[in-house]
Design goal:
The chain has 6 helices and 6 strands. The chain is of the alpha/beta class and 148 residues long. The chain has a 4-stranded parallel β-sheet, covered by helices on one side. Helix 2 packs across helix 5 and helix 4 crosses helix 5. The relative contact order is 0.22.
């Protein structure tokens, strides 16, 4: 009787097959963009996806200051962080966050869609977010990826 063998990719094999993608975030809805990017970072768009290994690709996102939210999230959504001191919890609305640190809007959305363990942290390091057209990864020859 024939048994089908399952495929199990190692991180070393995946490291040799990584690609670089560039995504323009102009007029994209934040949550929908973040789900697509999280799938690419995890490697779920590849046939050799392995849940316990980092098989994903690198993603560069440009024009992050031109993203959109649906509904009234620009005024209602809050971003929180803690300074480390007693009573040091801080917050900003999405509109204020867009003015100060627009790259954190996308970075936090993608971070929330990755696993909350060591593998998720490692996958998040392959995400680069830039405000504006220019980025520092021209040498990697990234492929333009169109997300609907």
């Amino acid at each position: 009787m024939y048994k089908q063998k399952s495929f199990n990719m190692t991180t070393e094999e995946a490291r040799n097959q990584r690609k670089w993608f560039i995504i323009d975030a102009t007029d994209k809805v934040v949550g929908r963009l973040a789900t697509e990017v999280a799938n690419i970072l995890r490697g779920k768009n590849k046939p050799q996806y392995t849940p316990h290994a980092d098989t994903g690709d690198h993603v560069i996102i440009v024009n992050c200051e031109k993203v959109k939210f649906t509904g009234k999230k620009w005024d209602d959504k809050n971003y929180y962080w803690h300074t480390g001191y007693i009573g040091g919890i801080k917050q900003r609305t999405a509109k204020e966050q867009l003015e100060k640190h627009p790259e954190l809007i996308i970075q936090n959305a993608v971070k929330g869609m990755l696993p909350s363990n060591a593998l998720g942290k490692k996958q998040l390091t392959k995400l680069r977010v830039f405000a504006g057209e220019n980025h520092t990864h021209e040498a990697q020859n990234p492929e333009v990826l169109e997300i609907n």
